[in-house]
């Protein structure tokens, strides 16, 4: 599984990437939406993106729109430190696979990533 972690908090990105790597998940990181979109353009085999909602510049919802339009095979999990039902619903309406709250439980994140990749594989076979 190849995952891109997008968050403006470097310590959070690095820690999460290490924790996912220990569980056999290849995790790359990007500090913002523009870098994430460029990375996706260079890495067409990405399985999933874990995308922070609140970031400077282009926020997660705007980035989700671009990812859904340009990379429809990539599952997106939205991540937020702020509980806003409206934002979660908007993300899901725009094609996010799921919405998780920070601090994210690593086992829950791994489960959601596996679920998203299985869903992607099933969708690809349909």
TrEMBL record:
GO terms for biological process: phosphorelay signal transduction system. The modification 4-aspartylphosphate is found at residue 52. Gene3D superfamilies: 3.40.50.2300. It comes from the Bacteria. Coiled coil: none annotated. Keywords: Phosphoprotein, Two-component regulatory system. SMART domains: REC. Residues 2-117 form the Response regulatory domain. This is Response regulator receiver domain-containing protein. It comes from Humidesulfovibrio mexicanus.
